[in-house]
């Protein structure tokens, strides 16, 4: 069974939804619907994904919409979720509403040191340390060093997407231009790839950061 990458839940009635790379599971009351994973349709003008699922047992439609969502239990989550399903032979859909969140890939939860920036291997000058960050996947946050300043910020994650947001740094003057280029590139990257202990961050314009795992 693949690792779950999205979870959602709601009350009245109580239900849970788990999405993994190989299957989608909806549980409500004593009923469980398991469906093979399918690629969702994506809206053109908003971060909305729609899954249309059909099996011999049931028809299920799932909509995941980015935006603050406060559940009935007063817990705030970043996505609102609506599920409509009906068993074979039924004429009307049951509608479920709730909130959900993506589960950050566990392999990202580590310390990563910069190896190369836009194709150039990092060569440090005196007084600088190697830029690095540590990802806390549970809090969707990071902290680290730009080369001579401390930094921290938040993370936006979806499968294949990783964005570094709300980056704050201390204000020490740094020799050379490494810090400026590093921060500019870091905040422009949107895609990630993990391979053989290395994390590569890229964007469609060609920006690239390669980090090695150091923890």
**What is the residue-averaged pLDDT?**
93
What is the H/E order? EEEEEEEEEEEEEEEHEEE
Number of E-state strands: 18
Helix content: under 10%
What is the spatial order of strands in the main beta sheet?
4-3-2-1-9-8-7-6-5
Shape: elongated
Helix count, per DSSP?
1
Structural category is mainly beta
Largest sheet: 9 strands, antiparallel
Oligomer type: single chain
Structural Rg: 21 Å
* Proportion of residues in extended strands: over 45%
Distance between the termini: 27 Å
Which regions have little confidence, pLDDT < 50, spanning 5+ residues?
none
3D structure, described in words:
This protein has one helix at 178-188, and strands at 4-10, 15-20, 23-28, 31-36, 41-42, 48-54, 58-70, 76-87, 94-102, 111-117, 120-121, 132-136, 141-145, 150-158, 161-169, 191-195, 198-202, 208-213. A hairpin with a 2-residue loop joins strand 10 and strand 11 (120-121). It is 5% helix and 56% strand. The longest helix has 11 residues, at 178-188.
Give me the secondary-structure topology.
Elements: E1 4-10, E2 15-20, E3 23-28, E4 31-36, E5 41-42, E6 48-54, E7 58-70, E8 76-87, E9 94-102, E10 111-117, E11 120-121, E12 132-136, E13 141-145, E14 150-158, E15 161-169, H1 178-188, E16 191-195, E17 198-202, E18 208-213
Antiparallel strand pairs: 1-2, 1-9, 2-3, 3-4, 5-6, 6-7, 7-8, 8-9, 10-11, 10-12, 10-18, 12-13, 13-14, 14-15, 16-17, 17-18
